[in-house]
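hiii, so i know i said id send this last week but things got crazy w the move. better late than never?? heres the sequnce for the chain we talked about at the cafe, plus the structure i predicted for it. fair warning i was half asleep when i ran it
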Amino acid sequence: MATDGAERVVAFVVDVFEEFNYELPASFYKMLLSPIERDSILESRAMAFDVRMQGVKRPYDACLHAFNVTRMLMFVQSKAARHGLLLQHGCGCNSHLTDIQSAAPSSIVQFSFEDHKTRKKAITAYIWRMWNEYMLFPMSVQSQTLAL
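okay and structure toks below
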């Protein structure tokens, strides 16, 4: 269990939950909270190859890939930045948080939805993208060799 800022991660996820509540699935919030289960909240984990991600890698990766819906990503990043964090998702399906508080203490990321209709469209697009990723695509073309 991370001891180097887990409270910042929880506070950030609570901020996101206060906006979306139950409009998004539990796997979304669990994915955002996953850094507190690591030795450090800043530890990077390659979901495709790390056996510790067994059982959660597909839903977590689908949630991360669904951030191609830019409005959702910007909103989540703005909430993370309020707590000095930045969510990262790399090409190797690895994910981690970056501590922008110490790297760039005066940096500010702010985003809000223009209106209720835009917010609703972003949530719908995010959920469809997430389900598309989860249902239609395996973690990798080499999935037979991965720790699935």
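btw The radius of gyration is 15 Å. thought thatd interest u
miss u guys!!
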